[in-house]
Design goal:
Blueprint: E1 18-21, E2 28-30, H1 31-35, E3 51-58, E4 61-67, E5 74-80, E6 84-89, H2 100-109, E7 114-116, H3 129-135, E8 136-140, E9 145-149, E10 186-194, E11 206-214, E12 221-227, H4 241-262, H5 265-290, E13 296-300, E14 316-318, E15 320-321, E16 327-335, E17 338-347, E18 350-351, E19 361-363, E20 369-372, H6 376-386, E21 392-395, H7 399-413, E22 415-419, E23 425-427, H8 430-437
Parallel strand pairs: 10-13, 15-20, 16-22
Antiparallel strand pairs: 1-6, 2-7, 3-4, 4-5, 5-6, 8-9, 10-11, 11-12, 13-14, 16-17, 17-18, 17-21, 19-20, 22-23
Helix pairs in contact: 4-5
The chain binds zinc ion (ZN).
């Protein structure tokens, strides 16, 4: 068992080291194992009055001072190898046997029934003080020596042992990289398909699901593959519950829009409002659901039949919906010989800005939000005024007739403002306007 080791250390080269094999796989020496190396002293008294003190950890050697009651103090030098502990004592261990100082000292140090020496095993680090000091922090106290990697080096690899904690890891081959963001994914986008035409031939806007391929970061769709319709749904997609609801709404709207599109001019005037109301109701259900969707677009559609074709990327525009409903109001203005009436749509007191008016929606250029109009009547009024440059013109001499035929009625249901001569906006009242514009009040 006894063997000599050459460490190039503080000890003479011919220092004798006694070896104790570890109980594998840990670098531990138990009190039980110690007893196999030394004739066990009788009685607990034999172990009393033993004093050990850690002195240092240099050149790969742990230095421990041992003082037994009956003898002078001795120094133990411990070298921790992979599979064994080598011990030298200043007594020289006559006859190559484990001396009493070493036995009693180790027994005393093993106060939890074993001596854990793993922290002293740093192959490649501890034999060279410069390397040890660079990578490791050593704290020596009487009862303990702590040896650990300097914080900046984190977890240091020990040859044949590995890293702290690596045994608990299990790194299995991943079958699918689902959590990694990778673009080019097939996703469902939702298109608000609309057009702008004369009142008679413009389409009722319908929600249309659309299969697309995402960009590298998945932020938007870069290529649109196919529209989804009831008679030709998009397959091989795991729809969310939200998407299933939206698909149903979209299919219904498409059906209604198709019916509406096939009506003749006369029928449209009679039946159209009813169909438009149905589409509006469906949009009211759809918008809260669309707020949960990532890929929303508005799609300019010349003819409804074009939904059978591949979506055209150039007609797609990003779209964000608002739950706010615009408020329709009117402004009357006097221009010396005539009056003008224009429509203004507000959200939270801010006028929306737009140049085109499709059915049911206002696409605000300032906020870039899509607003659903509150009612078919509001929408029809707005479209009617907007279809003529958002302006009604009335000669001064026709004003009273205009009031009687339209404005009086309008001002009962909507806010109508009068932009007076002084440039102040006030609530419309016939008397005020007549006085302000100098029209002779025939009503007295
Ligand atoms: Zn000794």
């Amino acid at each position: 068992m006894a063997k000599k080791i050459k460490l190039g250390t503080i000890l003479p080269n011919d220092t004798f080291f006694y070896s104790i094999s570890f109980d594998q796989p840990c670098q531990k020496v138990t009190r039980e194992a110690l007893k196999t190396h030394f004739p066990e002293p009788r009685g607990y008294r034999a172990y009393m009055g033993i004093h050990t003190e850690y002195k240092g950890f240099t050149n790969g050697l742990v230095v421990v001072q041992v003082k037994l009651p009956e003898s002078t103090e001795h120094m133990l030098y411990l070298h921790v190898g992979l599979a064994e502990l080598d011990i030298a004592c200043t007594c020289g261990m006559p006859d190559g046997k484990l001396c009493r100082h070493a036995y009693m000292g180790l027994h005393s140090m093993a106060w939890h029934q074993y001596l854990d020496l793993e922290r002293f095993y740093w192959p490649g680090f501890t034999n060279d003080e410069k390397i040890k000091v660079k990578f490791l922090d050593t704290e020596v106290s009487k009862g303990w020596i702590a040896v650990k990697p300097k914080a900046k080096y984190g977890n240091i690899f020990k040859s044949t042992i590995g890293f702290v904690g690596d045994k608990q890891l299990s790194i299995r081959e991943r079958s699918k990289l689902q959590n990694i963001i990778s673009g080019g994914q097939e996703v469902i986008g939702y298109c608000l398909a609309y057009n702008i035409g004369n009142y008679g031939n413009s389409l009722l806007p319908a929600l249309v699901p659309c299969l697309g391929l995402t960009s590298k970061n998945n932020k938007n769709i870069v290529s649109f593959k196919q529209f989804g319709r009831a008679d030709k749904p998009i397959h091989n997609i795991n729809y969310t519950a939200n998407q299933q609801l939206l698909n149903d709404i979209g299919y219904k709207q498409y059906g209604i829009a198709k019916t509406y599109d096939n009506l003749g001019g006369e029928e449209k005037r009679n039946e159209g409002a009813k169909l438009k109301q149905q589409v509006l109701n469906l949009w009211e259900q759809a918008i809260p659901l669309l707020l949960n969707e990532k890929y929303n677009y508005i799609y300019y559609l010349y003819w409804l039949k074009y939904l059978k074709d591949k979506p055209r990327k150039t007609e797609m525009q990003n779209c964000r919906y608002s739950l706010d409903r615009p408020v329709l109001s009117f402004t009357l203005k006097f221009h010396q010989d005539h009056f003008s009436l224009t429509a203004v749509v507000f959200v939270d007191g801010n006028p929306l800005k737009f140049n085109h008016k499709p059915h049911l929606f206002v696409f605000d250029e300032v906020t870039e939000l899509c607003y659903l109009m509150p009612s078919v009547q509001d929408d029809d009024l707005l479209i009617w005024i907007f279809s003529h440059n958002n302006r009604l013109t009335i000669l001064k001499e026709h004003f009273i007739e205009f009031h009687q035929s339209l404005l009086e009625n309008l001002s009962r249901s909507y806010e109508v403002f009068y932009d007076n001569k002084a440039g102040k906006k006030i609530k419309y009242e016939l008397k005020t306007v007549l006085f302000d514009s100098g029209i002779k009040n025939i009503f007295g």
